[in-house]
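One thing: mind reviewing this one?
=====
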Amino acid sequence: QVQLVESGGGLVQAGGSLRLSCAASQSISSIHTMGWYRQAPGHERELVALIRNDGSLTYADSVKGRFTISGDIAKTTVTLQMNSLQPEDTAIYYCNVASWGRGVMNPYWGQGTQVTVSS
């Protein structure tokens, strides 16, 4: 069974930076998107950034200009560089890969990595 392994979370002061990485335990074919989501206490999981198989990118408005997503679909690796972090960025961050299989979209999720930004 494919697993997504995340690393790079932690505690940082406001204004600081963190880099999250995600890699699949084995190759995933027919990838449609790779991305990062986050969930803060009492909130629903939300999209942070997404990279599509055509190379196009999507960012949540709240992170535009501060976060940068990059990835290698062939290697199934995706990275999120987070700069100018703010306390409101505190959340569990989840790596996600969506791939086509048997006519349906199959989502893969990482276990989540905690990001805490202190003021």
About this structure: The chain has a mean pLDDT of 96. The CA atoms of residues 96 and 109 lie 5 Å apart. The radius of gyration is 14 Å.
